[in-house]
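Let's do one together. I've listed all components of the complex below, 862 residues spread over two lines.
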Amino acid sequence: MPHRPLRLALLGCGTVGSEVVRQLRARHDDLAARIGAPLELAGIAVRRPELRRDVDVDPTLFTTDAAGLVGREDLDIVVEVMGGVEPARSLLLTAMSRGASVVTANKALLAEDGATIYEAADIYGVDVYFEAAVAGGIPLIRPLRESLAGDTVQRILGIVNGTTNYILTRMDEEGVTFADALAEATELGYAEADPSADLDGLDAAAKAAILASLAFHTRVTIGDVHREGIAGLSAAAVSAARDMGYVVKLLAICERTARGIGVRVHPAMIPRTHPLAGVRDAYNAVFVECDAAGQLMFYGRGAGGPPTASAVLGDIVAVGRNRVRGGIGTGESAYADLDVRPIGETITRYHVNLDVADRAGVLAQVATVFARHNVSIQTVRQIGRGDDAQLAVMTHTAPDAALAATVDDLRDLDVVRAVASVLRVEGEEGA
Amino acid sequence: MPHRPLRLALLGCGTVGSEVVRQLRARHDDLAARIGAPLELAGIAVRRPELRRDVDVDPTLFTTDAAGLVGREDLDIVVEVMGGVEPARSLLLTAMSRGASVVTANKALLAEDGATIYEAADIYGVDVYFEAAVAGGIPLIRPLRESLAGDTVQRILGIVNGTTNYILTRMDEEGVTFADALAEATELGYAEADPSADLDGLDAAAKAAILASLAFHTRVTIGDVHREGIAGLSAAAVSAARDMGYVVKLLAICERTARGIGVRVHPAMIPRTHPLAGVRDAYNAVFVECDAAGQLMFYGRGAGGPPTASAVLGDIVAVGRNRVRGGIGTGESAYADLDVRPIGETITRYHVNLDVADRAGVLAQVATVFARHNVSIQTVRQIGRGDDAQLAVMTHTAPDAALAATVDDLRDLDVVRAVASVLRVEGEEGA
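Okay, and this is what the predicted structure of the assembly comes out as:
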């Protein structure tokens, strides 16, 4: 006997929402076969129903009354692609309280207050799926939540923001400045009108919080994430990294540390032989190091309407199947409750470029500062002479607090005209 | 109230099985927290219980009576890592009929007769999970079965056999012969004592059948897979590919075609700019092209005890969670029932190296043969002179049958001393 149709409501109908609607229509029979029941669109909540949208759908489905829509008792699935913490959170809580399962692409909400959402799902016995919240079309959440549930994740290094990766790729490959690369990204539509959330690492930090929560079975919010953006990055620093066999990437890093976990977003130098080094333009990739599975990488398009809609549709099928078969999928796993440690405890390496006076004794003074903080130097190279004299210092690993204090003290040295750049080094074997 | 322990039986205790036992012990509390119930090992079926195994486990758990073990009524999960079609199939059918869910790493069984296993799971309302059957520790099955369930997969290109990828990497990077690379792989333990299943593409073909089944929602068995191995590959062909900017890889290819799907395993030239080109040594990677999600890649260790055990443990957690929460996971999806088309219909490009006589009119005769089969030539290069004269021909795309017939006719030409190598070209943009 065919299953009754599953009733689905959509919150938001922008780029991703429109694509979801299009696919729901175009692939209706396919999706019904995969789920075991047809999907029926019960309503679409939007702020401006009069807006022209490129979807062929019954106009009476549009409503501005999102609260009224999710308050209905007959919904099976609520799909939220509106973004932002409120009103999305309240709407999803209402939907779950009425018995609907939830599919959301909302990284801001999950990174800010995922706990409230997961707890409600548990209380009401419904599903919360969110594959689209991190790295768009790349299947990543489900592998972390389920495939690797039998393993121990040690570290995640992710390129999870396409805008900044596009900019960094241009800077690396063409030697252009940050400003020029940003202008190009804006022109091509890779950067938004206000790109600050991308450039400041805010977008990547939200994703890092979600990935860390899943990998370490611990609640991590965006406030726990140490964050540095790429706006201050000079063409010279990128080019110096290139000359040394490294490429600069904005990384989201989640790792187990001696006393808990560390979660951070910052530009870093990675060796050109690292699998992440070849991830170019607006592509995303997430590199995962596990005890048993070893090194894994997931690669693909991290944003855009169709890839994100693919992730949303996959979740709709999963949640739909659960409805048809009875039962729910994986819920929150936060049993480990590890301590999120401050950035100062992170063990890392620094590469520091110093503009220095070209006279005898400079190296001795600089070396003394490193030694005072117990930071061991691996290599020093002098580049140029006279007013262009630079020292490029690569350290051994040390606590970030010691490295940061070293850099602060270097700024105070008379012989140091300027600290031209400071970059952490990541992704090295055995480092 | 804590859930009762879940009772688990293990079939087989070789490299993977021993690692599973080790992890079940070492990570008992962690796994219990993730599942919501502790796991209890009820028995381990082995052929030779007296064999020394590197696991610390109650020796009374070992039994030679596998049928008796799976015939018990009190098992929740049966984990099968013995391999081979029989007796594995009979044992799993018995286990499911008694109500146990199944976790298996058995690619041979699933590629040969997965339908019987999936149907039994459906009849008895139990789970069959098999993440470890393809590409070891790389989460791949779950992404295909679930994450991409809302998308349409057009093509999969996979490097799914570590032994052959190691050999091909050595041939490409060091210019060594197949025989020397194989000897090295054997010495390092990458190749088994009898490596024929790897070299002939049999191992990859089993994985291709499983991937195609999942990607296209269609039953595909290993008998449906067109298969060519790498044993005949010459150092000269690999080196010629290298000079042209290509690398030779043994690919498992699953693709939608005009009239159904095609599934094949053979060595192929791929451009060095393709993400798969950088997958070296014994690493595996699977490249997936979807309508909405675009290009995705999954990368990691495809074999070995710990990576495979990671996949098995992940499945144990998933199946265990389903037991605790009630309900089952994704079952077989074969609704699309697409036709598996013969290799002759595949649209592809050939690169052909011919040893030719060095005299006027050779190119005309060769070109006439291509034209007779409606195969259009993209480039021809003459290499060397006299007795070393070669023609390197790159075709445009054409049906494989026409290309194969062309090569057959070329062999009959007097001016062609030998067809030195024939390789398909894959992974080109817009090709």
